[in-house]
Amino acid sequence: MPDLSGFFAPDGTHRFPLRVYYEDTDAGGIVYHANYLRFVERARSEMLRRLGLSHGALAGEAGVSFAVRRVKIDFVAPARLEDTLEVETRITDIGGASFAVAQSVRRDGHLLARADLTIAMINRTGRPARLPAAVREALFDLYQRQTRD
């Protein structure tokens, strides 16, 4: 497993910092609701990259890619222009062709939004595909860290 220091908390939670830019906000300087999907997507992609999983390599070598199958978002408080945010990502389940994550967007430790997603593996024709062994192993190793007592 790759060295996770600096990117993952001891419990396996991935932490991804980001700043709110003008392009992320509406006319009132508040983050537009759909941009939270971009924030959590970016954080998930970075988590996978830090686990040694490349979207490009998976598509090119294994002929598979990730697709969001389900998403539920609860908006708790607004993020604003120039806020520094942190997206926390935890794996909550691993199936044969999918995995689930819980993600939260925080500012100074205060919850702004939480999202629960199911991420499916699909092949080049868009049909479900089993998680490749390297993906399953990396996710399972992280999931074990997150579920230790």
Structural descriptors:
149 residues, alpha+beta, Thiol Ester Dehydrase, Chain A, 3 helices, 26% helix
Number of domains: 1
The percentage of residues in β strands lies in: 35-45%
Give me the strand/helix succession. Answer: EHHEEEEH
Which stretches are poorly predicted, pLDDT < 50 over at least 5 residues? none
User: How many strands appear in the DSSP assignment?
Assistant: 5
Describe this protein's structure.
26% of the residues are buried. β3 and β4 form a beta hairpin. Helix content is 26%, strand content 36%. It is globular and about 45 Å long. The longest helix has 16 residues, at 35-50. It has one domain (14-147): Roll (Thiol Ester Dehydrase, Chain A), CATH 3.10.129.10. The chain is an alpha+beta fold. The two termini are 21 Å apart. The model has no long low-confidence stretch (mean pLDDT 94). It has helices spanning 35-50, 55-62, 133-147, and strands at residues 14-19, 64-75, 84-94, 98-107, 110-123.
Write the layout of secondary structure elements.
Blueprint: E1 14-19, H1 35-50, H2 55-62, E2 64-75, E3 84-94, E4 98-107, E5 110-123, H3 133-147
Antiparallel strand pairs: 1-3, 2-5, 3-4, 4-5
